Amino acid sequence: SYQIGTHETRVLFDVKHPPPADLKHFAFAIRQDQILNNIIPQLPAALHLPAQKALEADRLRRMPNTFIPPAQQGKQTREGAFLLGDSWNMRHPLTGGGMTCAFNDVVILRDLLLDVKDLADWEQVAPVLNRWFWARKPLASTVNILSVALYDLFGADDPHLEVLRTGCFKYFELGGACVREPVTLLAAIAQAPILLFRHFFTVALYSIWVLFTHPRKVGTSADGKPLYRRPRPDEWPLLALKSVQVFYTACVVFLPLLWTEIRP
């Protein structure tokens, strides 16, 4: 959720692909079962009534989402026009980075176009678009990769991603740079894909450490309380195999995204 006005907040709900055939019935089911019964009770008490009123007064808006990596523009594209914003480069809305990328693109392109003597001359404009494609990479690539990687990490039901999720939260609990630097990446203050790479795979390795060393739930006591214990040495061989699978999963999530951003 994020604020869109002085007294308005927009809330996003993720619906897994593929969508059901009966969207009208599905919207009603989402409204009743998911939002009223599951989401609103988790909100602060002061927000329960406003959220219920918003559901009654406003319709649910459906918005498809996709990942569109940027493509070079200029000599390879139609003369006299170029794309900006989500029409050219789209990422997952989880991190809310779309407007950040769009404004950054506008600022960089404005500065580059100042050197063009005649905007009607495509031979002058095309090379600028090529330079712009690479000049925007530090910020845009960081936001693009982070948004999709975070969604893959927290939105999927996979036991290996579950290990990475747990390790991610444990990593944040370390404090210091383990929180400060990821937050600067999330806020697009740090424009450094290499910093994102370092933290992502540090989290992956720390998740494996957590898998071996931290207590995990093994059952419940007679009074219904969860029971936790550390893994025993005889469990380590299976955990070692799982660790390889966890690290492989981290590579499958991150490296294809990185390649889409660094390739020409």
TrEMBL record:
The keyword Cell inner membrane does not apply. This is Squalene monooxygenase. Residues 2-214 form the Squalene epoxidase domain. GO terms for molecular function: flavin adenine dinucleotide binding; squalene monooxygenase activity. Its cofactor is FAD. It catalyses: squalene + reduced [NADPH--hemoprotein reductase] + O2 = (S)-2,3-epoxysqualene + oxidized [NADPH--hemoprotein reductase] + H2O + H(+). GO terms for cellular component: endoplasmic reticulum membrane. The keyword Membrane applies. The chain crosses the membrane at residues 195-215, 236-259. Keywords: Endoplasmic reticulum, FAD, Flavoprotein, Membrane, Microsome, Oxidoreductase, Transmembrane, Transmembrane helix.
